[in-house]
C-alpha cells in the first residue's frame, strides 16, 4: 500500500449509489480518505474531479484504491486499468457485465497481488447472518422471495439499466439472490425462468424464477420493477421448525411471526470495513454465485414481451 497512514481512495462514477452510500460510508470510516472523483458528468463538491480513471490516476498516482460505481457495462475496462497499475479495487454489484470479465479481473488481481472486492451490500443487512445461523440446523422446505420496487424511484433517468448488460429488474433482484445464496445450505440451480422484456428495452422489467438445491428445497422468486407505493423486499422460508421472514431487504428478521431483530442500515459501512481488511492483507473476495444465477436466467429463461417502458 502506497500510503502508510490511511487508505487513499477515489470514487469512479458519481451516480445515486455513490452519493447515497459510498460517500457517507467512506466519511464514517477513519481508515479511508476520499481524495478524488472520476466521472464524466458529475462532480462532488469539495473534491478534485477528473473526467475518467486515466486522468485521475495520472494526477494522483499514489492513490491506494478505487471504488468503481459505474454502470456494469463499462466497469471491466476501468477496473483492469486500475489493477494493472497496482491499485486495489472495490466493485459495486454486479461486479461486471459478464462472468468472464470478472474471472479476468480476479486473475489480474492475483498477478498484481492487490485487493479485489466484489461487493454484495444486501448480505450485510442486519438480519442476514442471524437468518443463516438459524437455518443451518433446520430442514428448509420451501422459500418464496418477493422483490418488487419502483424503478422510477430508485433509478430515475438511468437509461443504462434498460440496455444490454444493465440487468433491468435483476439489478435489484440480484440483491435477493445474494441473500438466499448466503443463507440457504447447498447449491441452488435454476429450474425455470420467465423474463418480461418491455418492447422498447433490452433488459427485463419483471421476472419469475424457480430454483432448487440438492436437498430438494424449492425457491420461487418474483421480481417486479414497476411496484408503486410501499416497496417489497421479502424472503419467506418455511422449515420443519417454523417460518422465517426477512423483510425490508434483510434488515428485519422475524421467526414464527415474532420479531427477532430490526437494526439500522450498516450495509455499506460493513463493506468498507471488509475492504479495509482486504487492502491491508492484499487479498481477494469475489463470489460470483448470485451473478451466475442471473446469467443462467438470461440464458435459459423464456422471454415474453411486456408493454413499452416510459420514464
UniProtKB/TrEMBL annotation:
<feature type="domain" description="Gfo/Idh/MocA-like oxidoreductase N-terminal">
    <location>
        <begin position="7"/>
        <end position="117"/>
    </location>
</feature>
<protein>
    <submittedName>
        <fullName>D-galactose 1-dehydrogenase</fullName>
        <ecNumber>1.1.1.48</ecNumber>
    </submittedName>
</protein>
<dbReference type="InterPro" id="IPR000683">
    <property type="entry name" value="Gfo/Idh/MocA-like_OxRdtase_N"/>
</dbReference>
<dbReference type="InterPro" id="IPR036291">
    <property type="entry name" value="NAD(P)-bd_dom_sf"/>
</dbReference>
<dbReference type="Pfam" id="PF01408">
    <property type="entry name" value="GFO_IDH_MocA"/>
</dbReference>
<keyword id="KW-0560">Oxidoreductase</keyword>
<dbReference type="GO" id="GO:0000166">
    <property type="term" value="F:nucleotide binding"/>
</dbReference>
<dbReference type="GO" id="GO:0019151">
    <property type="term" value="F:galactose 1-dehydrogenase activity"/>
</dbReference>
<dbReference type="InterPro" id="IPR050463">
    <property type="entry name" value="Gfo/Idh/MocA_oxidrdct_glycsds"/>
</dbReference>
